[in-house]
Design a protein that fits this description.
364 residues, Aspartate Aminotransferase, domain 1, 2 domains, 3-stranded antiparallel sheet, 11 helices, 38% helix, binds pyridoxal-5'-phosphate
Length: 364
Amino acid sequence: MNGRIPAGKPVIGEEEEEAVLRVLRSGQLAAGPEVQAFEKSFAEYVGVEEAVAVSSGTAAIHLSLLSLGIGKGDKVLVSPYSFVASVSPVLAVGAEPIFVDIDPVTYCMAPENMVDVIDHDTRAIIPVHLYGQMADMDGILKVAEENELKVIEDACQAHGAMYCDKKAGSVGHAGCFSFYATKNMTTGEGGMITTDDKELAETARMLRNHGKGPQGEHETCGFNYLMTDMEACLGRVQLDKLDSMNDTRRRNASIITEEMAPLEESGIVRTPVEVEGRKHVYHQYALRVSREKRDPLVFGMRKAGVDLRMGYDRPIYRQGFVDMDSPCPETESACQEVVWAPVHPVLDPSHMRRIAWGLKQLLR
Ligand SMILES: Cc1ncc(COP(=O)(O)O)c(C=O)c1O
């Protein structure tokens, strides 16, 4: 790739083209065999009994909440440092989001910050495996067990990430994935719920299809959150490539980390930390700099042809659709100091060295 280095780019090859053409030519664009086949292989990959394909990661979180019976009068612990869709489904079901500050090293919700905010209305936790590294699931499961809370993993950025020997999406009551175009694997738009709970999966299957039950009757008020066969066939091909695409992300990330070592030693940057026992799949490479340096760095890199991105620049509780006062100091700092460097698998080591060179020039 010459010229500009984009922030994200899907790896689409002949296999994807052939799969989509095969489905187009079959005439069965929806409700065909591809969705079921994708669900089966995704469940096997994650290591769960059930996978329910839906139209987006947002739909996956929405249906997981509904299927677990969470709604009006309930409280759900959420991360303020994430994409808005980690929280908007909580409001959509009529529940109240309770914001829990993050761990400054992993950027994921810290279990020690949950204890004081739990009360008798709290029903669930939505830990976000942010940037491709899983949250502290031992700590979160302990809090959940002690307080009888459901755990819905937001694994929308963590396809293939591991916590000890467990894959993201196999640890909580439900796991939610997004297959948006820039994710670690893509179907264009799309999502998946993973679970060992057959009842949850059945309810989600009904809700994604207008509330239609096994007898064909519309038993409950549902949605059209279905995945098409064209998306599912793409997903099957992408799933086969996921581990190797993640390996490339990890290699690309390690090149920047190595190149940044002198700047890290002098305290100018903080590179991502892969916690022992976890496998980071680098959906984003989060580099931390001082707040004074952040904006000039982003503009300087863009001028040099590298699409460095500002990370999440405000906590979700300060987005217009929430607008709550919920001070979370670690989140506030991360919102002012994090940038995302491209590490997606279309990039090779020479791109990574170009990115690192630009960062060094601007941060010196
Ligand atoms: C952490 C997180 N949660 C939820 C979502 C929502 O996924 P989708 O865009 O597929 O609805 C995303 C995707 O951008 C995400 O990054």
